[in-house]
Amino acid sequence: MRPPALPPKAIYTSCYCEENIYLLCRDFTSIPEIAEKWDAKVVFVSNADQQVALFTQKSARKEELPVIWDYHVILILKPREVEEDEGLHGRNNEEADDPPRMTWLYDFDTRLPVPCPWEEYLKLTFPEDILPEYESCFRVVDAQEYLDSFASDRSHMIRESAKKQDVVMYSSPPPTYEPIFGRLVAAGVKTNLMDGFVNSCEGVGRFGTVYSRNVVCRGVAEN
């Protein structure tokens, strides 16, 4: 079962991974042929100190070195359960040379192929032998919940020095389109990015389920 390729006109803005993935998630879930076959989940990667090490990233100073980020956001597509066709046409009318049914990962910032098999991405991007303070937690959120509930006014990207001078100066240029506010975001909420999604602790007002590195593969597979 072949995963969908990145849309030819997928929107990407450096340092705004949560918005890049939001738009990709919206694209995939709006295409019936994809939505019927694939279950989409958004994964926020962070930890309690908001300093996680990711390997195989384009922005690394050297290929063998990791980048240290406060958080990162990726998208996972898992094949939906379908009825098997036991007739003469074979399994679900799929081509004999189709790759096996597996979970695929989409990351605009990786040096790995996109999409990439989830288990391969996890192994190469988050190796097990890193310092404990840089280990990642994984908040897995259903695609529709993310599309409905995410809000960001991009205030987390405004430089602290600029805030003191009451000036808006971003640490990286923001997207040219308007900030994103899901249809279920409560009136008056300007952002829930950091508290609702990046924060790696469970609690009221937070979305999805948090997994450790050792169980995230099983967690993604079961939810």
Automatic annotation (TrEMBL):
Protein name: Protein N-terminal glutamine amidohydrolase
Subunit comment: Monomer.
Known catalytic reactions: N-terminal L-glutaminyl-[protein] + H2O = N-terminal L-glutamyl-[protein] + NH4(+)
Organism whose genome encodes this protein: Coprinopsis marcescibilis
Keywords: Hydrolase
Entry's EC annotation: 3.5.1.122
Sequence similarity: Belongs to the NTAQ1 family.
Entries under InterPro entries matching the protein: N_Gln_amidohydro_ab_roll_sf, NTAQ1, Prot_N_Gln_amidohydro_ab_roll
Lineage of producing organism: Eukaryota, Fungi, Dikarya, Basidiomycota, Agaricomycotina
A Pfam family assignment: Nt_Gln_amidase
Function according to Swiss-Prot or TrEMBL: Mediates the side-chain deamidation of N-terminal glutamine residues to glutamate, an important step in N-end rule pathway of protein degradation. Conversion of the resulting N-terminal glutamine to glutamate renders the protein susceptible to arginylation, polyubiquitination and degradation as specified by the N-end rule. Does not act on substrates with internal or C-terminal glutamine and does not act on non-glutamine residues in any position.
Keyword Protein transport belongs to the record: no
Annotated Gene Ontology cellular component terms: cytosol; nucleus
GO MF term set: protein-N-terminal asparagine amidohydrolase activity; protein-N-terminal glutamine amidohydrolase activity
Keyword flag Hydrolase: yes
Record domain Protein N-terminal glutamine amidohydrolase alpha beta roll: where: 12-214
